[in-house]
Amino acid sequence: MLRFYISCIIVRFMNDIPGVTRIDLAKDSFKFASGHFTVFSATERENIHGHNFKVQIAFDAITNANGMIFDYKVAKEFIQTLCDALDEYFLLPSCSPYLSITESDDSIYAHFAGEKIPFLKRDVKILPIRNVTVEELSGYILSQFVDGFISHYAAEIPYAEARVFSGDGQSATSRWSK
Q: Cα 4–9–15 angle (5° rounding)?
């Protein structure tokens, strides 16, 4: 009985000291399949191809007196929504210095080095990034997570990162802190 009482005192003491905990969210469903091409220079790009991208989000947060941060379900639903919004689209970067994008009634055209590459509008997602790479996608997903999710928990989350995999052994991680 004394041992239990001492343990409770230690836990109560620990609750008075805010602890920072790292939370890693990496579910099998955090993925999206998208087409793209990477632009290397004003005259060189990859051929059109696709990847099954995987997403992981990690963040540091203050553990509350109840021994938790918040219900992770909300964060997982938000990440899933981000992935679903990119799934089964051809991704184009709107901020590329070498690529321009025009639209007609039902088509989008990517203009690159004299090429006019046509796409159906319904198949394309234009992102505010410079290139469709894991580096830029991790930054994009992180910015969406920070702006759309962390802004609601700003007092408790001082650090976050997003990692995007384009295949086994190939990923990029972007980091944010207050």
A: 125
Interatomic CA distance for residues 129 and 7, integer angstroms: 51
What is d(CA 58, CA 1) in angstroms, rounded to the nearest whole number?
39
Phi, psi of 177 (to 5 degrees): -145, 155
Q: Which domains does the chain have, with CATH numbers?
A: 19-177 (3.30.479.10)
> Could you report the per-residue pLDDT of 16-30, keeping only the tens digit for each?
556 788 999 999 999
Report yes or no on whether pTM surpasses 0.85.
yes
- C-beta separation of 124 from 108 below 8 A: yes
Helix (H) or strand (E) holding 5: helix 2-16
